[in-house]
Design a protein that fits this description.
Length: about 600
C-alpha cells in the first residue's frame, strides 16, 4: 500500500497538506529529516503514516504526558496500535505494556526523554526493531529555543547508538533561523532534508486591542462566542483566579488552570475543557502544551507573553482543525514590568537574561506595530514576504492616519547626532531635555535635538521610539546594552525621501463579533451531530475531538451522507471511523433530513 492510499483509508484525508508528502518520503527512505510546520499543519501524520508502513516500531519522544494520551487514543480509534510508557503508569502496567510491545503488536510507542535516560529502559529499547525515532517539539533541544529542555540533549547520543539504526524525524512549529541551525547541528541533519512549509496560519485572525478595559472586554467577547471553545491566558495565578471568578459571577461557566491548584483539580479542569463541559478555560502558560483539542475557536492573551515564540505557539492552539479562529492580545505597556521582574530575578546566566530581554523587546514591538501582524510574525521567523494577510486587526484598521514625519525626523536626527551609540532611555531623555543628561561628560545639552520634544512626556517619547522601531525605521542592536540604529527606511525619512503616518489613537466602546457561519453547512444539523459526538465521547471516556473534529462534523452537515461510500467522502473519515460510528451518524442525518422534508411539505 502506498502513502496516498494509507492517507485516505486510515486517516480519511484526500490530500496531503503542504510538506507532508516530502517529509514522509524522506522518512520512508531512512533519512534524517527536520520538519518545520505551523501548529495545526499536520506534523503528527508525518511520523504516524510511515509508522504504519514500516514493519517495526516507531519511537515517539514527547515531553508532554497529556499529548501522549490524546495521540494514543486518537490512533487506537483509527485501529492503529499505539501505547505510551510514562510516570502515570504503575510498575505492573508498565511491565504489561513492555511485553505487549515485544510481541510486535504495537506500531507506535510514546515515551518522555526522562524515561529514555533510564539505563534499564534504554537497554530494553536496544532490543526492539525500531525503524523510526520521531522527536516532537524539537525546538526544546536548542538553548535558543523558548522552552529549552536539557534532558532532550542527554538522549541524543544513546538514540544515535540504537542497533537498528532507525530513520530520524524532528518536528517543530516555532524555530527561528538560529534554532534551526542549532537543531541541524545537534541532530546531524543534511540541509537537503530540511522541510519548511512556512509559519503562516491563514485561518487565524490575529488581533491586538490596545487600551481597552480588559475584564469587561473579555466578558463581552466570551458572551458573544458562548457556544465556542476558547482559552484565556494570563501572566499570574492571581490574574487567572480573578478572571475565572469574574466570568463565573457573570454567568459564564469557565474553568481555570495554574500550578497553584492541586493535581486533582488541575486534571479535572483540563478534562472538563477537553470534554466540552466548559467552553472557556482561564490559564497560565502552564496550560496547553500537548493539548490536541482541535475545536478551539479563540485564544485571548490577557497579558502579553514574554516571547514571540511562546505567543505564536499559544495562538496556534486555536483553529487546529483549519476552520476560522481568532487570537486577541490585550496590550498595555505596564504588563512588561512583570516579565522584566522575572528576568531580573532569574538565576540564569547573563547571556540568557540578555536573550530573554531581546525577545521581550521584540514582543513589545510586535504589539506596537502597524504593519500586517502575520507578516511581522513571519519576518521574525525568517520568512520574508510583502503580502499582507488581509484579516488581522492592522490590515482591517480603518482609523484615520496622522502625518508624523516631522516628529519622526526629530527622533531619527537625535539618534544620528548621538552617533547611534545609545539606547532608547538615553535618547528619550535627550529629546525631552532632561537636566541629568544635559551637562555631563557627553555634552548632550549642546546637541540641536536636545529638548526638541520638551512638551512631550517621557513616556510618550519612549512609546514613539518603540513605534518607529516596531515599524522598521529604527532597529535595536543585540547585547547587554541595546543601541538604537537607523535603518535604510529610517534614513529615507530623515532625508525627506519618505513620509511616516500613524493611526490616530481613539477611545472607543468595545465591540466584538461572533465568528459567523459561512453558509456552507446546516447549523442545526451540526449541533445535533455535536450532541451525538458528546454522548459517544462520554460513553467511551474519550475527548469529543478524538471521535470526530468539528471540521468533520461541518463537512457532514454540508454533504449529509446517507450511506457508507458517502460517509467515507467526509473529511477525516477513514475505514475505522466508518466501522465504529458510521451507522449512528448516518441514521441521525437521515432522521434530520426526513424532519426537514416534513416541515417543507
Amino acid at each position: 500500500m502506498d502513502s496516498q492510499s494509507v492517507l485516505k483509508d486510515v486517516f480519511g484525508y484526500d490530500h496531503f497538506r503542504p510538506g507532508q508528502r516530502k517529509i514522509i518520503n524522506h522518512v520512508l527512505n531512512g533519512d534524517r529529516t527536520l520538519g518545520i510546520m505551523p501548529t495545526g499543519g499536520g506534523k503528527s501524520v508525518c511520523y504516524q503514516l510511515p509508522a504504519i508502513m514500516f514493519s517495526g516500531l516507531t519511537l515517539v519522544v514527547s515531553p508532554l504526558i497529556s499529548l501522549m494520551k490524546d495521540q494514543v487514543d486518537s490512533l487506537n480509534e483509527m485501529n492503529i496500535p499505539a501505547t505510551f510508557i510514562n510516570s502515570t503508569l504503575d510498575y505492573r502496567d508498565q511491565e504489561e505494556r513492555m511485553r505487549y510491545i515485544e510481541s510486535g503488536a504495537v506500531k507506535l510507542l510514546y515515551a518522555a526523554p526522562e524515561r529514555i535516560e533510564n539505563p534499564e529502559f534504554y537497554s530494553w529499547l536496544c532490543q526492539l526493531p525500531i525503524d523510526l525515532v520521531a522527536i516532537d517539539e524539537a525546538h526544546v533541544l536548542s538553548s535558543w529555543g523558548h522552552d529549552f529542555r536539557p534532558s532532550y540533549l542527554n538522549i541524543i547520543d544513546p538514540l544515535n547508538q540504537l542497533p537498528s539504526q532507525p530513520a530520524w524525524l524532528a518536528l517543530t512549529a516555532t524555530a527561528t533561523s538560529r534554532v534551526q541551525d542549532d537543531l541541524v547541528k545537534i541532530l546531524d541533519i543534511p540541509d537537503d532534508n530540511i522541510v519548511k512549509t512556512g509559519f503562516a496560519r491563514d485561518n487565524i485572525a490575529l488581533k491586538i486591542e490596545r487600551g481597552v478595559s480588559k475584564l469587561p472586554y473579555v466578558l463581552n467577547y466570551v458572551k458573544s462566542h458562548k457556544n465556542e471553545s476558547g482559552i484565556i491566558y494570563a501572566g499570574r495565578r492571581k490574574d487567572v483566579d480573578a478572571i475565572y471568578e469574574y466570568l463565573n459571577e457573570h454567568g459564564i461557566k469557565a474553568g481555570r488552570y495554574h500550578a497553584g491548584l492541586d493535581d486533582e483539580e488541575r486534571h479535572q479542569q483540563q478534562e472538563d475543557f477537553l470534554f466540552d463541559e466548559v467552553n472557556v478555560i482561564v490559564a497560565t502558560n502552564a496550560f496547553g502544551m500537548g493539548i490536541n483539542k482541535t475545536n478551539v475557536r479563540y485564544v485571548i492573551h490577557f497579558t502579553i507573553p514574554g516571547t514571540i515564540e511562546s505567543y505564536y505557539q499559544e495562538v496556534g492552539r486555536a483553529g487546529r482543525d483549519g476552520l476560522p479562529a481568532e487570537a486577541i492580545l490585550l496590550y498595555t505597556p505596564a504588563d512588561l514590568r512583570l516579565h522584566r521582574f522575572f528576568i531580573e530575578q532569574s538565576e540564569a546566566d547573563d547571556d540568557y537574561k540578555r536573550s530573554l530581554s531581546e525577545k521581550l523587546r521584540e514582543m513589545n514591538q510586535y504589539a506596537m506595530t502597524e504593519v500586517c501582524l502575520m507578516r511581522y510574525i513571519l519576518r521574525y521567523f525568517g520568512e520574508i514576504t510583502e503580502e499582507n494577510c488581509g484579516h488581522c486587526s492592522n490590515c482591517l484598521d480603518n482609523r484615520e492616519t496622522t502625518d508624523v514625519t516631522d516628529d519622526s525626523q526629530k527622533v531619527l536626527s537625535c539618534v544620528v547626532r548621538m552617533e547611534q551609540k545609545y539606547g532608547k532611555k538615553t535618547v528619550g531623555r535627550v529629546l525631552a531635555g532632561k537636566a541629568d543628561v544635559a551637562s555631563d561628560w557627553r555634552n548632550f545639552g549642546k546637541l540641536s535635538t536636545f529638548g526638541i520634544l520638551h512638551d512631550w512626556t517621557l513616556k510618550s517619547i519612549n512609546e514613539f521610539i518603540e513605534y518607529l522601531t516596531a515599524n522598521g525605521y529604527l532597529i535595536t542592536t543585540s547585547g547587554q546594552y541595546p543601541l538604537l540604529r537607523l535603518t535604510k527606511k529610517g534614513a529615507q525619512v530623515l532625508k525627506g525621501q519618505a513620509t511616516v503616518a500613524r493611526k490616530t489613537v481613539t477611545i472607543r466602546v468595545d465591540q466584538v463579533k461572533e465568528i459567523a457561519n459561512d453558509g456552507t453547512y446546516d447549523e442545526k444539523l451540526f449541533e445535533r451531530l455535536r450532541r451525538l459526538r458528546l454522548d459517544i465521547a462520554h460513553a467511551q471516556d474519550l475527548p469529543p475531538f478524538v471521535i470526530f473534529s468539528d471540521k468533520s462534523l461541518r463537512d457532514m452537515s454540508q454533504k449529509m451522507p446517507e450511506n457508507a461510500n458517502e460517509f467515507l467522502a467526509v473529511n477525516g473519515v477513514g475505514n475505522a471511523k466508518l466501522e465504529r460510528y458510521g451507522e449512528r451518524f448516518i441514521e441521525l442525518i437521515k432522521t434530520y433530513k426526513n424532519e426537514q422534508d416534513e416541515v417543507k411539505n
